[in-house]
Amino acid sequence: MNILEEIQNCSVEWKELGEVCEIVRGNGLQKKDFLDEGIPCIHYGQIYTYYSSYVYKTKSFISFSLSEKLKKAQTGDIIVATTSENIEDVGKSIVWLGDGDVCIGGHSCIMKTRENSKYINYYMQSTFFQKQKEKQVIGTKVIELYPKNLSKIKIPIPPLEIQEKIVQILDKMTEYVTELTSELTSELTSRKKQYSYYRDKLLSFEDEVYQVEWKTLEEVAKFNYGYTDKAKDTGDVRFIRITDIDENGYLKSNDKKYIALSEESRNYLVKYGDLLMARTGATYGKTLFIDTDEASAYASFLIKITPSEELNSRYYWHFSKSELYWKQANNLVSKAGQPQFNANSLKNVKIPVPSLEIQSRIVQVLDNFDTVCHDLNIGLPKEIELRQKQYEYFREKLLTFVAEGEYTESRVE
């Protein structure tokens, strides 16, 4: 009999977490308390960042005097994040497998159990658990999962022998996916560095192979500030904001906001190939290339850059990611209070302008690198995503039990 058959045929009790775990709420730790060395601690925000289902060590420390005031998790205890601005992060958990105790602060809790703690932790990642969790959280801007509500969530408790077998399989899968993802991520990082190297090399024109004129952006482009309106969940056209630009200079596909289309807002519509730049805040200078035909208008903290006939918009977009561009941007930005990189600063950026034919060739080369590095539909990013989905698929199969009064269709034959 294989493990899936054993799971299907074993006896399972559905119990509330409060019945199988002692839940202890954390207290008092803040980010400002972190030290480079001292007593090990885990801040709730750290739990969000762990890829694997548990952590062996932590790089955060606090003073001995502060540690005396905090709750401590022992080896094998489950640590749960109970506060976040994102519902996906609330309820995330790790099993502490380090040597000795570790301190935790507020916005976290410790779960101690006589069951297999890794099994419970794996189950807390499952879809069925997440659905129950969503019924127990409260808040809108700040989401809370209070220990008393966490304790009400029911989980399946098979015999310890079955728990151990499930853990063994998921541990091996976790190790495999973690190692593979690490290798793929390392390869992706290498390719990104290669892309950056060739981009900066091509755009420096140090070898003077091509005839090039260095011009200020004011000479080869026009600038227009965005439209002021309140972003809403529904409307006639998408409303592009600073926060809609991802780290690679593309438009995010999630968390879309909209506005009504009026005679005035029509003047701020964008089309495929347009360029928008963030002019304020931490992301100042970041440039977005519009790669969609979705009807959209741009918000007031963005500047639309309209190149003249002698400047290829895609060529400029690649330039806006170069070291040469950012050296100028960081020197030109107004850093008094909130960083401001408005049109008066942007117009002074100097850009190499070769012929349109050469610009087109450079774009072709850099687009190929960019596609390999950043397109989630092909290449290494897609491979990383597929391996994670594969892991999640088998985890769900191993953790699918018959709920009380409810039968699932996702059982494995």
Total count of helical runs of at least 4 residues:
14
Give the overall shape. Answer: elongated
Regions with pLDDT < 50 over 5+ consecutive residues? 403-413
Secondary structure: number of strands: 22
- Beta content comes to 15-25%
User: What kind of sheet is the major sheet?
Assistant: 4 strands, antiparallel
Helix content: 25-40%
Give the class from helix and strand content and strand pairing. Answer: alpha+beta
What integer value in Å does the Rg equal? Answer: 26 Å
Average pLDDT reading: 86
Quick structural overview:
The protein is α+β, with helices and mostly antiparallel strands and 413 residues long. The protein is built from 14 helices and 22 strands.
Question: What does the secondary structure layout of this molecule look like, with pairings?
Answer:
Blueprint: H1 3-9, E1 13-16, H2 17-20, E2 21-25, E3 39-42, H3 44-47, E4 61-62, H4 64-67, E5 71-73, E6 78-81, E7 83-84, E8 93-95, E9 102-104, E10 108-113, H5 117-123, H6 127-136, E11 143-144, H7 147-150, E12 154-157, H8 160-204, E13 213-216, H9 217-220, E14 221-225, E15 237-240, E16 258-259, E17 269-270, E18 275-278, E19 287-289, E20 296-298, E21 302-307, H10 313-319, H11 323-332, H12 343-346, E22 350-353, H13 356-374, H14 379-398
Helix pairs in contact: 8-13, 8-14
Give a description of the structure.
The chain is an alpha+beta fold. The protein is 36% helix and 19% strand. It has helices spanning 3-9, 17-20, 44-47, 64-67, 117-123, 127-136, 147-150, 160-204, 217-220, 313-319, 323-332, 343-346, 356-374, 379-398; strands at 13-16, 21-25, 39-42, 61-62, 71-73, 78-81, 83-84, 93-95, 102-104, 108-113, 143-144, 154-157, 213-216, 221-225, 237-240, 258-259, 269-270, 275-278, 287-289, 296-298, 302-307, 350-353. Strands 2-10-6-8 form a 4-stranded antiparallel β-sheet. A hairpin with an 8-residue loop joins strand 18 (275-278) and strand 19. The model is unreliable at 403-413 (pLDDT under 50).
